[in-house]
Recover the amino acids of this structure.
């Protein structure tokens, strides 16, 4: 079960970490969006026809992504109904984040469905900032190694997962120029988060932190 100390520390994660929304970026952490978009940085942490993806699950979200963005989710069932529901919705949250950046809309239905509290505020602000800078994203995003590390009272869960941005880049909206970067370990990002079950039964990400180049996520 999550301890009081863990909850207190988690509550301050987003406030303590500056998220650059760039993937394989320099260490400047200035949030300029000069590299990849929709990645992460912590503690040293296009225009095409949209394509819809949906699950066969009841009331599953539909994600409208441009054809030049691919989101791959690799997760395995745990055999525990609660943990599987948590991982399902956390995976949805990762795709909701991509969709919001691709649309340049920090108030999408999916972002509001799978994020809450400080995490929702943060991502909404970052989407608005990147849109103002005239940037969007392109390429392949892969999410993997999902794990529920704790569940408290069937209402709060601690989760971790990895993201591979080695084939993902930022793109200038006006020129469609792709901002390619050199591959590095910082393309691999570890996310740790807290999710809370809301009144409709969805698990929403409320607090989230990340670390670039974490050894547990880096792949060859």
């Amino acid at each position: 079960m999550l301890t009081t100390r863990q909850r207190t520390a988690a509550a301050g994660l987003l406030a303590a970490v500056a998220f650059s929304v760039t993937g394989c970026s320099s260490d400047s952490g200035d949030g300029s969006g000069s590299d990849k978009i929709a990645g992460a940085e912590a503690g040293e942490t296009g225009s095409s026809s949209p394509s819809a993806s949906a699950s066969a699950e009841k009331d599953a979200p539909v994600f409208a992504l441009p054809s030049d963005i691919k989101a791959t989710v690799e997760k395995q069932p745990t055999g525990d109904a609660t943990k599987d529901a948590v991982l399902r919705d956390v995976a949805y949250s990762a795709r909701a984040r991509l969709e919001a950046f691709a649309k340049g809309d920090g108030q999408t239905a999916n972002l509001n469905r799978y994020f809450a509290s400080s995490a929702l505020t943060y991502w909404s602000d970052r989407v608005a900032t990147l849109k103002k800078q005239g940037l969007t994203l392109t390429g392949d995003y892969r999410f993997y190694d999902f794990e529920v590390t704790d569940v408290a009272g069937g209402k709060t869960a601690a989760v971790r997962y990895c993201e591979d941005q080695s084939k993902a880049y930022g793109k200038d909206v006006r020129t469609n120029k792709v901002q390619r970067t050199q591959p590095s370990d910082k393309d691999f990002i570890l996310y740790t988060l807290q999710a809370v079950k809301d009144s409709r039964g969805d698990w929403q990400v409320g607090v989230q932190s990340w670390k670039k180049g974490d050894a547990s996520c880096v792949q060859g």
User: Anything to note?
Assistant: The mean pLDDT is 81. DSSP finds five helices and eight strands in the chain.
